[in-house]
Amino acid sequence: MTSPFNILTNAPTPPPAGHPRPSWLRVRFFGGPNYQELKRIMRTLDLHTVCESARCPNMGECWEHRTATFMILGNICTRACGFCAVPSGKPLGSPQEDEPERVAEAVERMGLRYAVVTSVNRDDQPDGGSAIFARTIREIRQRVPGCRVEVLIPDFRGDWTALERVMDAQPDVLNHNMETVPRLYRQVRKGALYERSLELLRRAGELAPNVTTKTGMMLGLGETRDEILQAMEDITAQGTHILTLGQYLQPTPEHLPVERFVHPDEFAEFKRLGETMGLKHVESGPLVRSSYHAFEQEEAARG
User: Fold this and answer.
1) Residue 231: which CATH number?
2) 233 occurs within a structural domain
């Protein structure tokens, strides 16, 4: 098999022009009764999911298995990252104060034992939306005792009081995605800082040592193998427990292009190397996303 990296430069070898997605990235859409029921619940309660807004390729499978990732704080993000399909702009009004109760009701109606909650960036809010995150965690716990809660949070622009507010609510898993290697941050994660995201992971672990910390990265944006491994070492050094690695897929022609399709064998190698570095669990594969099989990831890290 041809190496995905140029041997002399360690730069990624791009796919041929017009190259179709390889077979390992083709998914079958599920649209059965569970999918339809979850869609009705979300619309009835006026809730958003990152599955829909970010055009996740696993949405059909996850929804049919009664798993969805709630997206709170609206559907308009104050940042315009080069990889993300969530609409960006100026949010209309303040966050809805009853949203935590509606999310908890949906968790109850869906019969979830593991809930994942994420959000858009709300840089327009003084607390970045952290109070709504904390209330959502507590409302789910009150309404559905025993349900484990994972939150995927933004960086709150480095407001560590906002982070402390979320950690005080004691989520089972605190996730914050690094997304990519430092060299690509300016084009991939506008408004974010690599070192700030690393610091968030470290501080989260210090604030609540009993909470599992987690992060994720996309591959295929032009990063080199050495850059991936260095980022993995940086992540491990923060005491992070779980790392997810998945293939970047261009959501629209206006977003960053895919520089290459990473072979499943490479993903398997990164998993092996990450766990050798000391990460408790690495979920690594072309279709892996932060919340894909989140319950199983957390179980593996705890085991």
Assistant:
1) 3.20.20.70
2) yes
